[in-house]
């Protein structure tokens, strides 16, 4: 294994193979134990219709039921957070049918995104670029989830996992802003494997990942933007050989996105001086 690969695999905690039942129960227990320690009354999570939030939503609902069995008056608040009309709304509904959350709310972020864009225009002239408006969408989804979490004394669940963390493929303080990450240490194929094992529909577990943040390119596939496949990322995280070009690209992304995997830099930090 490449030297940096070894360090990254250790940081992401991905195992070469998993037992789906064990992974589900330790993640549910983690959510339960943490909520109890935090004195929280449940969880909030955006359900997009993608693979990651389907698993995190399932785990959150199971953990909430367990909390109730243990006497905590907990609820899981699943949030639909479309921007206008979501082109794959049906997938989000399929995911919700699988998860069976206690509560489902729809909070359409379009007006809030437009509000930011208009204020930007008034201040600077010219609209926000589609790419930057995309990050505004992710941050407003985070804002909406924290609004509910505050009201309901709940924790915001994030969906970050090894195959996204390694590339920094999330919006800083957007979908990257959360309280607890039950999918962490899994890669993308393991998330699919668990969902398949749990009986989710094939349409959901085999769905191609999309951040779906662009007005001008709805449903753009992550792999197209990244220029690297999840199979290559997953192989790398399982400690397998991947071709040199892909490994180098992955490592370059890992190094250039370290600021996203840490709290804001202060005078006491020196990790960023190391290249
Ligand atoms: N070295 C550094 N040290 C400290 N801070 C640094 C920095 N370099 C940039 N920054 C800051 O970080 C900002 C850039 O980071 P950020 O705002 O995240 O923006 P950025 O990384 O450019 O964009 C987010 C990426 O994640 C993808 N994404 C987002 C959301 C969800 C998903 C998904 O898969 O669902 C994927 C999205 O498609 C895009 O490729 C800069 O504007 C600057 O403020
Ligand atoms: N339209 C949406 N409605 C609700 N939540 C959303 C929406 N878009 C994104 N999110 C939230 O942002 C998170 C990050 O998006 P991301 O695309 O990485 O995950 P996903 O859509 O669940 O899975 P996949 O990576 O397979 O597309 C989602 O898991 C979800 O919690
Ligand atoms: Mg998605």
Explain what the structure shows:
- This protein is of the alpha/beta class.
- The protein is 51% helix and 6% strand.
- It is built from 12 helices and 4 strands; from the N terminus they run ααβαβαβααβαααααα.
- It has helices at 3-12, 20-38, 51-69, 89-99, 110-124, 130-152, 162-165, 188-197, 202-205, 222-226, 230-237, 244-256, and strands at 42-46, 75-80, 103-106, 155-156.
- Strands 3-2-1-4 form a 4-stranded parallel sheet.
- α4 links the parallel β2 and β3.
- α3 (51-69) crosses α8.
- Magnesium ion is lined by residues 48, 50, 209-212.
Question: Which CATH architecture is right?
Answer: 3-Layer(aba) Sandwich
User: Which band does the percent of strand residues land in?
Assistant: 5-15%
Give the overall pLDDT as a whole number: 97
Rg result: 19 Å
Which structural class do the helices and strands define?
alpha/beta
Instruction: Tell me the number of strands.
Output: 4
Ligands bound, unique:
nicotinic acid adenine dinucleotide, adenosine-5'-triphosphate, magnesium ion
- C-alpha termini separation: 21 Å
Number of domains: 1
- Major pleated sheet: 4 strands, parallel
By CATH's scheme, which homologous superfamily applies?
A: HUPs
Oligomer: single chain
Per CATH, the class reads Alpha Beta
Low-confidence stretches: none
Order of secondary-structure elements: HHEHEHEHHEHHHHHH
Output the number of helix runs.
12
* CATH topology group: Rossmann fold
Roughly what percent helix? 40-55%
Shape: globular
Order of strands across the main sheet: 3-2-1-4
């Amino acid at each position: 294994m490449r030297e940096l690969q070894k360090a990254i695999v250790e940081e992401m905690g991905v195992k070469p193979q998993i037992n789906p039942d064990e992974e589900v129960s330790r993640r549910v227990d983690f959510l339960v134990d943490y909520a109890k320690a935090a004195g929280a009354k449940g969880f909030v999570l955006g359900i997009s219709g993608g693979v990651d939030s389907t698993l995190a939503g399932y785990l959150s609902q199971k953990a909430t039921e367990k909390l109730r069995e243990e006497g905590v008056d907990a609820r899981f608040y699943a949030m639909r957070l479309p921007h206008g009309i979501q082109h794959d709304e049906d997938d989000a509904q399929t995911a919700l049918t699988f998860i069976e959350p206690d509560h489902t709310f729809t909070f359409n972020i379009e007006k809030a995104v437009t509000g930011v864009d208009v204020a930007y225009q008034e201040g600077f002239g010219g609209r926000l670029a589609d790419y930057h408006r995309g990050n505004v969408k992710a941050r407003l989804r985070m804002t909406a989830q924290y609004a509910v979490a505050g009201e309901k004394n709940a924790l915001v669940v994030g969906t970050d996992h090894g195959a996204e963390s390694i590339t920094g493929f999330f919006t800083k303080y957007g979908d990257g802003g959360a309280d607890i990450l039950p999918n962490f240490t899994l890669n993308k194929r393991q998330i699919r494997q668990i969902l398949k094992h749990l009986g989710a529909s094939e349409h959901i577990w085999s769905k191609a990942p999309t951040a779906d943040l662009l007005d001008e390119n709805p449903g753009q596939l992550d792999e197209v933007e990244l220029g690297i496949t999840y199979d290559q990322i997953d192989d790398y995280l399982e400690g397998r050989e991947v071709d040199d070009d892909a490994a180098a690209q992955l490592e370059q992304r890992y190094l250039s996105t370290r600021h996203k995997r840490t709290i804001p830099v202060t005078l006491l930090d020196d990790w960023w001086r190391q290249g």
